[in-house]
Amino acid sequence: MTVLIIILALIVLLVAVVLIRTAAFKPPRANPAAAPILAPEPAAEVLGRLSRAISFPTVCTQAYEGTDFGPFEGFIGFLAGAFPLFHKTCELKRINGYALVFCWKGNKTGLKPMILTAHYDVVPVEKGTEAEWQEPGYSGAISGGKVWGRGTLDIKSQLMAHLEAAENLMRRGFQPARDFYFIYGQDEETGGRNGAAKVAEYLDEQGIRPEGVLDEGGMVVSGVLKGVKAPLALIGVAEKGFCNYEMTLSGEGGHSSMPPVHTALGNAARLVTEIEKRPYPAKLTAPVEGMLRNIAGEMGFLVRMAVANLWLFRPLLLRIFSANPVTNSMVRSTFAATMARASDAANVLPQKAAVTVNVRLLPGDTVDAVEGYFRGLAGKVPGAVKGRPGTDISIKTLVPAEASKISPAGGETGPVYEYLEKLIGEFFPNAISSPFLVMGGTDARKYYRVSDQVYRFTPVLVTDAEKNTAHNTNEYITIENYGRMILFYERFIEGFDPSRG
Ligand SMILES: [Zn+2]
């Protein structure tokens, strides 16, 4: 009897603690009552310049050497003519031919510089989809309150807005206290190895240690999470890593009329099945936990209770997240079997079969650890030749890129984040700003070499559907967003003083 009472008392206590913590949970809230800073509609010549920027098909090919750099050269020449004051004021250094590094000298010494960056390469308009575009993909057409074409949202708009902002400030006689670098990569869409990576190397060699770096990767997005009404201003503080694992299995060749029970391809399929059956362990990384804490207040009671009591509900929350591909990718290094190759003929037994698994790594998980994990799983698959599990399987890692470091989301070590958050609050008062883990790769990751405060945020307000026009048909930016972008960067540069360090 006493035992029962004690158990009951403990349960009551547990429920009480959970409820009290839930009630006391006050996530940072947006400030919808405040009036946002409104940007004037950009003048016709401002829009004309963006339109012209879009008209250069600056497409970088996977094999970098095969790239047609004519349009890149054309774009650089166009910038010089479009922003004369900027080019007179800033020294331009071309790194590795086409990465552009402009430096606007500050009027004080001893302050760390700040970097604003973007890229000016674009993904191609996919062959066969040209006719589906409302306006041609490289037209830069201005219609219906929008500017259309590749690079409007990803991300020549950001580059152009930087330069419009700087040129405006220069015209008013403004000079920043610290040096501002404006850096533009030419191969972000194909990995940034020839652009951002080389620039980071150059900065490192020069001993340039910026206070912070602001790139693309997050936006103010509305309607992206069910149940969350306020738009989310997502500030990317880290990026997932990337690696292709090519696993080759050997088998006995010969005529397919007298096959073994399992061919090399059959065993490869079994390996893929093992990998799909055993996903990598789920975990909450700092950016995702930070995001949950910021947005849980907008969500239903159950989510709020779970987030307010992670000590108890973490496993449950991870299970809920694992059930949906979008949220799953936030809490786990994901495996996707994407390619397979075996015999060249239907009646020939394959001597080799290869499968490729594309892996996206959470911060904290490494290329090597996942390789070890796959080796363990390969041990369960019978070798086709010797019949012993795990034999005849080789694993090769291709284009490995570890997950990025995690930039601080405010606090003593993250004043640039706080500055950004404050400015976001002024331009988008009804949005909830939050740290965010970027699923794809951007140039930003390269700059951890020289700075700990690397952020990914573009000051545009988009719907989920609008955001998805990037890399897609009918990419556009609204004129309203573009005007706000320019003013945002003006204010960013003008007021930048997060630390005197
Ligand atoms: Zn981009």
What features would you describe in this structure?
36% of the residues lie in helices and 20% in strands. With 501 residues, it is of the alpha/beta class. The protein folds into 2 domains: 284 residues, 3-Layer(aba) Sandwich (Aminopeptidase); 163 residues, Alpha-Beta Plaits. A hairpin with a 3-residue loop joins strand 1 and strand 2. The mean pLDDT is 93. The structure holds zinc ion. The site of zinc ion has 5 residues, from loops.
Poorly predicted ranges: none
Which ligands occur here?
A: zinc ion
Count the DSSP helices: 15
The helical percent reads 25-40%
Query: Judging from the principal axes of the Cα atoms, what is the shape?
Result: globular
Total DSSP E strands: 19
- How many discrete domains? 2
Measured between the Cα atoms of the first and last residue, the distance is 65 Å
Examine the coordinates and then state which fold CATH places here, giving the name of the CATH topology of the largest domain: Aminopeptidase
CATH superfamily caption of the largest domain: Zn peptidases
Strand residue percentage:
15-25%
Q: What is the top-level CATH class of the largest domain? A: Alpha Beta
* CATH-derived architecture of the largest domain: 3-Layer(aba) Sandwich
Structural class: alpha/beta
Strand order of the largest sheet: 1-2-6-3-7-17
- Our Rg estimate from Cα atoms comes to 26 Å
Q: What is the residue-averaged pLDDT? A: 93
* Biggest beta-sheet profile: 6 strands, mixed
